[in-house]
# Entry
Amino acid sequence: MFGWPGFWLALLCGLAGQAPADEVCAIDDADREVCLAAPANRIVTLSPSLTELLFAAGAGVRLVGTVDFSDYPPEAAELPRVGRHDRLDLEALLALEPDLVVAWISGNPREQLDRLRLLGVPLFLSETRDVEGVAESLERLGRLAGSEASAAAAAATFREGTRALRAEYRAASPVRVFYQVWEQPLMTVNGDHWISQALALCGGENVFAEAPSRVPRIGLEAVLARDPEAILTGGAGPGDATWLEAWRDHAQMTAVRRDNLFVVDPSLVQRATPRLLAGTRAICEDLEVVRERR
# Structure
């Protein structure tokens, strides 16, 4: 048995090996454990999608900065800007004195993220890859921001919505779809991407699902050879059908012949946020039109 001095020494040593009571930790999408001494109070996000995620997780009041084109929710417009996602203004970012920066792995300049890391700025690296990843990101960000209850509720709502869509369209006849991400160069998504998974929830079959790259560049002839029954695109912005008009030059395609050319709101589909649920519902409605036109 310890004497009193030994008892206190053992107790203090034991406490020294424990994490502080307020410490919060989460695993980011680079498989790094990110720990903060306390929930973050000054957060900067480095993509529009990440800004949306933080607001959806109930942590909007803790945001002190973001990048250009962060336009949702409306409150995001009031946040100071620290450059574009592909070229950050590190001086402006550091002036905000963030205690957490949420970064986009493939979208932010690696050398600038490395610089922030060297300066000791806590970084959470995010790269949502699939539909389930939206809910998981909400939960992890909510943990770091101290808004776990709100984040858990948002994640549960999102998961329930995807389950409902899967059940509703489980027996729907398949529709072969080409989703156009960009025009020049012509780009799409493969089967691992959340957009392809959203199509699948509606009974859509991505004609480029087998592509090795998540966002591959493709040729016009490859699309013509696959002869999709429907073409969907976000265009250059909401309601922009310019890219679809170019497909009308290829009247031999099934999608063109049946007028199955659809514009979707890119902010609802091409951002991995809870609004993906609304975007997926819109896709499902478009694919129902395709089935009616057979």
